[in-house]
Design goal:
By secondary structure, the chain is α+β, with helices and mostly antiparallel strands. It is built from 8 helices and 21 strands. 30% of the residues lie in helices and 32% in strands. The termini are far apart. The relative contact order is 0.05.
Length: 431
């Protein structure tokens, strides 16, 4: 009986060992896994931790110090989360990390912020040639130089590093754009965060503004189709057609970046997140003054603002554009009168039609008589002579004060430059 009992006990022990072996085999762990364990012992070299595997693991003192702690901060039998660093360090030891396990919560938070597009505010701690470093809990996030706001492009490496180092210590908002635990990559973008901020500010501004109201702003940018105005953290657009009542070729004719302007809120598009502004709506419409200033048959002076195949547009006071049609330039049907015209040319014309409600005013060269044209050109010559005399008198006064005579050629060139626009012969009309 004793033999049978001993045999049964031996079989039971073998079964238990087999089961334990199978259990351990089924609980495989891999590098990077986060597991819970129990502190078995503590010494100056670190911690021995039981994670329920076939052997106990080691948490080194250096790893503990990375968290700003010491071995005295732990107790035997205490529960602790650790990360598997190496299954075998070459000496058969299982190496664990408490600091990397603590970082796991930061990785989770970073992933959540990336998915929710939540912004994060932090202080820049370091810089290298590729970008800047920002702490994120127990992690260090990286902001590539291409995602740093207001960093000049085209800089040499040394110049870029200097610019990036100037940002150390500044608090900025960023957006999480990449989280890769295995490669330990945490990447931020300040540019995308700024876009998010501006979008939020624009949404708030759209709810605050009202169509038909006025607002102070600063011109923040110019482009071919208009001017952008910063209304307080978000931009609105003044289309080129809304800059002035007269024709504008480029916004720089009217405004410059940095100008303080008062604008009219023309329209709001909450769905498209657009704010349409106007400058000219705050100015009187010059066409409303046309009927009081002009009448059909009146002689007027104007300056050509642009030449088209069908005629020329002419600038008249108080800031309107009238049309000089090609049919009103010459009596000679075989002549191409457009070849005599150029932008900036001053002409004498007669008004032949007024439609102020349609913002149209028609001009004619052929309706100007030879006598009227001759008298006008004589007046232009007199004005040129007066300008030349004034320039010479100014030069003489300067010579009396300094005892030096300015170069005569400069005086002549100045006089010629003033005379050139008015001395150009007007397109002759055959009568």
């Amino acid at each position: 009986m004793q033999t049978e009992t001993a045999l049964d006990q031996s079989v039971d022990e073998m079964d238990f060992a087999s089961l334990l072996e199978e259990s351990l085999a089924g609980s495989q762990i891999e590098r990077g896994d986060i597991v819970s364990g129990t502190v078995l012992s503590i010494d100056n070299q670190g911690l021995i931790v039981d994670i329920g595997w076939k052997q106990d693991g080691i948490v080194t003192r250096n790893d503990i110090e990375r968290m700003g702690m010491s071995t005295k901060d732990f107790q035997v039998n205490a529960e602790i989360d650790v990360a598997v660093v190496r299954l075998n360090d070459g000496d058969g030891n299982l190496i664990l990390s408490a600091s990397q396990a603590r970082q796991n919560e930061d990785w989770k938070r970073a992933e959540a912020m990336m998915n929710s597009k939540e912004l994060y505010a932090g202080v820049l701690a370091d810089a290298n040639r590729g970008g800047v470093i920002m702490p994120f809990g127990h992690l260090r996030g990286f902001i590539p130089a291409s995602h740093v706001l207001d960093l000049p492009r085209g800089l040499k490496e040394d110049e870029r590093l200097i610019k990036l180092q100037e940002l150390i210590g500044k608090e900025i908002s960023v957006r999480v754009i990449e989280v890769n635990r295995k490669r330990r990559r945490l990447v931020f973008s300040q540019l995308e965060a700024e876009q998010e901020n501006r979008a939020a500010r624009k949404q708030a501004l759209l709810q605050e503004l009202e169509e038909g109201s006025t607002r102070e702003g600063v011109v923040s940018g110019l482009c071919d189709f208009g001017a952008f105005v910063d209304l307080g953290g978000a931009d609105g657009l003044i289309h080129i057609s809304e800059l002035a009542w007269f024709r504008v070729r480029h916004p720089s004719q009217v405004v410059a970046v940095g100008d303080q302007v008062e604008v009219f809120v023309l329209h709001l598009d909450e769905e498209g997140k657009r704010i349409g502004l106007s400058l000219k709506r705050l100015q009187p419409n010059p066409w409303s003054l046309v009927d009081d200033m002009y009448h059909i048959g009146q002689l007027v002076e104007g300056v050509i603002s642009r030449v088209e195949s069908f005629g020329a547009f002419v600038s008249l006071d108080p800031g309107i554009e009238a049309l000089l049609h090609v049919s009103q330039m010459s009596h000679n049907p075989e002549e191409n009168p457009l070849r005599h015209l150029y932008e900036g040319q001053k002409l004498l014309m007669r008004i032949i039609s007024i439609e102020s409600e349609k913002q149209r005013l028609g001009l004619s060269l052929t309706e100007v008589t030879a006598t009227e044209l001759e008298q006008w050109e004589e007046r232009q010559m007199e004005l040129v002579a007066q300008a030349r005399a004034a320039a010479e008198a100014e030069a003489e006064a300067e010579r009396d004060e300094t005892g030096m005579l300015p170069a005569e050629s400069n005086v002549e060139e100045e006089g010629e430059a003033e005379a050139e626009p008015t001395l150009e012969p007007q397109v002759e009309a055959e009568r």
